[in-house]
Amino acid sequence: MKGALLVAGTTSDAGKSVVTAGICRWLARRGVRVAPFKAQNMSLNSFVTADGAEIGRAQAMQAAACGLEPVADMNPILLKPGSDRRSQVVVMGRPLADVDAMEYGALRDRLRRVSVEALARLRAEYDVVICEGAGSPAEINLRAGDIANMGLARAADLPVIVVGDIDRGGVFASLYGTVALLDAADQALIAGFVINKFRGAPELLAPGLDMIRRLTGREVYGVLPWFDGPGLDAEDSLALSRAVAEPAPPYGRQTLRVAVVRLPRISNFTDVDALAAEPGVVVRFVTAPAELDDADLIVLPGSRATVADLGWLRERGLAEAVTRLAGAGRPVLGICGGYQMLAREIRDEVESGAGTVAGLRLLPATVEFAVDKTLGRPAGSAYGAPVTAYEIHHGVVTVDDGAEPFPGGCRTGSVWGTSWHGVLENDDFRRAFLADVAERAGRDFVPAPGVSFAALRAERLDALGELVGRHLDTDALCRLLESGPPKGLPSLPPGGRISP
């Protein structure tokens, strides 16, 4: 088998990342040499490859589904929003510039070449490449400059399947409208549809499937059922409302309650996925001071805009609440940007240009923002356990002499801070840390022995692959991969009629 296809979606968070990962896993388990690809990703959840390149976290997860170490070619363009109007552009894993929409337009041709060349290298190295689109291909205001959806499909002659989220409603209108809004040349590449997140009676859905086939002249390749439980490295903050499931019963007598502050520019919120996988750990994302009162552990996560999000904490009264509770001995963990907020002061002439800003003064450290971004895969130890992680930051934290060390940072009493992402994925370290938190919070919580976050993630990927195998027409998908876009597909104008 040799080929590639593009998984597009009717909306953001329709399930493109998960469907891509599921197809990758299904193929990999059948011995196919398969790799993932996303030409351009807009996400604040990112990962660092072994050679120090920054890519989207979802593509790292998809690489794991393929049994591969992630590389920059899998996500050559990463956009990291720092405000509503400006984003950092990361090209082949390295920051290029901070731009607004007009400045981005000047880079468009260069970025298109980079993306097409990266896909070509993956296709030369692997038998199959499963590409993921971005947002929706029917964002017609952006079509002229598109490099991630139909622009990529046209450049590489890729067959396209469109994923629709039935759980949010209007899935048939979304599928039909997506095709109808495209021009004829783009429509010619749309092979068919996948319906995602279905949890109803199949017989009630069947008439709609028949009708969408008749109206569009395209196949429905299957209906994926609702996939319950913790998410797999979600890349979109839209997933936060359902990112954490109810935990398994506690191993001890009580649960451990974790409140993660949902910052406006929250980044790498996947850091708490490992906590949510622990039996008896209840994880909630919060935005109000009162929601911190019953938390046994408060987490200040990463941020793409540390100074701005610290200002938001103060405006909402969250800064005062965190300081008050920490002063009373309540455990607090800051990760990356959240760690920077816990310092005495932040000097930032790079990200925000705000100059010197007072931090929360909960840790004996100062922060200086550097022009160059730190990207790495560091290692250390704590609680007698090894810790491996990855780091992505402009803020450089200097810890006072004599401060108590912590992997990637420091601690004072019940306040911990680290610049490292992924520390909680280290099983022995995580259990020891949670036991320390529970003791300080006065909770009769005991970490469950033997929980392996890596094994749980592998099980989730296997389950995705099995869902694809059971519920999608994999023979038809394989024919798409081998033969490319179907020939003679009808053109669909707005209005519901197929042209002759």
UniProtKB/TrEMBL annotation:
Function comment: Catalyzes amidations at positions B, D, E, and G on adenosylcobyrinic A,C-diamide. NH(2) groups are provided by glutamine, and one molecule of ATP is hydrogenolyzed for each amidation.
Chain ranges of the CobB/CobQ-like glutamine amidotransferase domain: 257-428
Protein family according to the UniProt entry: Belongs to the CobB/CobQ family. CobQ subfamily.
Protein name: Cobyric acid synthase
Alphabetical GO biological process terms: cobalamin biosynthetic process
Active site (catalytic residues): C336, H421
PROSITE patterns per the UniProt record, alphabetical: GATASE_COBBQ, GATASE_TYPE_1
Organism: Thermostaphylospora chromogena
InterPro entries the UniProt entry points to: Class_I_gatase-like (IPR029062), CobQ/CobB/MinD/ParA_Nub-bd_dom (IPR002586), CobQ_GATase1 (IPR033949), CobQ_N (IPR047045), CobQ_synth (IPR004459), GATase_3 (IPR011698), P-loop_NTPase (IPR027417)
Segments forming domain CobQ/CobB/MinD/ParA nucleotide binding: 6-227
Listed pathway(s): Cofactor biosynthesis; adenosylcobalamin biosynthesis
Entry superkingdom: Bacteria
SUPFAM superfamilies: Class I glutamine amidotransferase-like, P-loop containing nucleoside triphosphate hydrolases
A molecular function GO annotation: catalytic activity
Gene name of the encoded protein: cobQ
NCBIfam families, per the entry: cobQ, PRK00784.1
Protein biosynthesis recorded as keyword: no
UniProt entry keywords in alphabetical sequence: Cobalamin biosynthesis, Glutamine amidotransferase
